[in-house]
Amino acid sequence: MSMDVKTVAKVASLARIRVESDELDKYSRELSGILKWIEMLDNVNTDSVEPLANVANIELKQREDVVSDGNYQQAVLKNAPESLQGYFAVPKVIE
Amino acid sequence: MTELTNLTISEALAKLGKKEISATELTQAHITAIEKNRHLNAFITETPDIALSMAKASDERYAKGTAGALEGIPLGIKDLFCTKGTRTTAASNILNNFVPQYESTVTSKFWKDGALMLGKLNLDEFAMGSANTTSHFGNVLNPWKRNNGDTTDLVPGGSSGGSSAAVAARMVMGATGTDTGGSIRQPAAFCGISGIKPTYGRCSRWGVVAFASSLDQAGVFARNVEDCATLLQSCAGHDPMDSTSANLPVPDFKALLTGSVKGMKIGIPKEYRMDGTPEEIIKIWDQGIEWMKDAGAEIVNVSLPHTEYALPTYYIIAPAECSSNLARYDGVRYGLRVEGENLIDQYERTRAAGFGNEVKRRIMIGTYVLSAGYYDAYYVKAQKLRRLIYNDFMNAFEKVDALLTPTAPSAAFGIGENEDDPIKMYLNDVFTVPCSLAGLPGMSVPAGVDSLGLPLGLQIIGKPWDEVTVFNVSRAIERAANFTAMPATVVSKAA
């Protein structure tokens, strides 16, 4: 399947990446090329194959539900582009 | 006296232990080498002051008799590992000013053993690339040049290109890397050094900037197999902070490093003999097979029938995971923020300015294959193929102890080559990606040079958790290859 400029614009918006209108053609060409290439997987019948999500085969352990760490407000906010009174600050969302 | 920067880690540890040299001298020699090689652009951030103060502490521990297993050994750290108080960028504009407030498990283990940090090494942005040409901080140059008078700058491989270039140019004694689809093994091959990606789960991913979490694995580079074993010993092991890190004992890699392959069965996968692979790559592979026979191993032809599907499978799974992982860069909690008209606009402008082209392409492919209506057709399909690829390896390992293949389909190429079509660049990892999808340990060792004097590597793939066999086969290749070639700049400096 090819990815037309309309789809590119939609995907870019889903991915929250601003793409200028003069870039759409280039992305459409490149991403279509990649999609066409990966579609060779359709040549393999996988009807009875179980998907493999993770090779580690490790059972997730549960830990005690206790506080073991924390209280790093300053460290957590250290790299924030903007913080206010101990919180991350963002532009106003609700008028 | 041998130049300090030419010592192996084992040699340096012996000299440090006998107090023939000090950690401070050793570190200073490497700092000088880094200054002389700045044109290679291997470092994003140099940390000579940290290195010297750690070296001083190492010298004190040697004096007190409390030296650790890597006491005084200067390392370079791929700038994908969080280092407390030292900027960690992932080679991305979006993390340009990010200063971690915590230390990755892998690096903290090295520091606990007495190693010291010379700086943070360049890489492809978020480890996405095979030539180290996608870094926000510029290309890394390979210290090697073609020997026919051609002065073209060559790529060091990627994504851990700063790591491989710095080790090859004798700026560091060893380096960390990460490998998602070949990012340790291919750069090791391009720069004529050794590098191992251990089994998925062997090293903790805690504190490593995430790209594709079901594939990402930390590993190490050094100039020989023994040094890689020493380094991996230090940084491997279970970590409760990473739920996919294996709670298994770490074997004593160095003690078990005999280099003996007598009686071993070495598999040669027929599907890796691909059309269009340069003759010199096939030649070095055939040479490796001969070396294995001479060393007493039995060569067994095996089939990995789904090999041709590995790359497209990878280029669904890795971008899908990348699009999820990189959703965290929103200009709110850390990293770059570009103001916008509203919050959504701010996200979109921040991410447009913060990410480079290759990263954007992968995020968009990943977003597409995970989106409603396409999830089963692409993502689940790829996971099914991943199962078939995994099963191919498991079937082969019923008959053999390890697999021997070329590491990369070419020697290092010129900067700018393979850039016109993303897929051309992806094909660099044709021999390394299948092993990654199966989570297996893989190592590259230098095996010889091509007609232009550039290094070529061979890849050794092992069973899950069997790094010991990988090291032993690698050591046998290393011994037979007796690879002594060095980049011209290193040779002229030593003369």
- Provide the CATH top-level class of chain B: Alpha Beta
Number of strands of chain B: 11
Mean pLDDT of chain B: 96
Distance between the termini of chain B: 12 Å
Count the strands of chain A? Answer: 2
The description of the largest β-sheet of chain A is:
2 strands, antiparallel
| Low-pLDDT ranges of chain A | none
SSE blueprint and pairings:
The complex is a heterodimer of chains A (about 100) and B (about 500).
Chain A: H1 5-14, H2 24-38, H3 73-77, E1 83-84, E2 87-88
Antiparallel strand pairs in A: 1-2
Helix pairs in contact in A: 1-2
Chain B: H1 9-17, H2 23-36, E1 43-46, H3 48-64, E2 74-78, H4 105-112, E3 116-121, H5 161-168, E4 174-179, H6 185-191, E5 194-197, E6 217-222, H7 225-235, E7 265-269, H8 279-294, E8 298-302, H9 310-325, H10 343-354, H11 357-370, H12 375-396, E9 402-406, H13 422-426, H14 433-437, E10 442-449, E11 455-462, H15 467-481, H16 488-494
Parallel strand pairs in B: 2-3, 2-4, 7-8, 7-9
Antiparallel strand pairs in B: 1-3, 4-6, 5-6, 5-10, 9-11, 10-11
Helix pairs in contact in B: 2-3, 5-6, 9-11, 9-12
Label this structure with key terms:
heterodimer; A: 95 residues; mainly alpha; two-stranded antiparallel ribbon; 3 helices; B: 495 residues; alpha/beta; Amidase signature (AS) enzymes; eleven-stranded mixed sheet; 16 helices; 11 strands
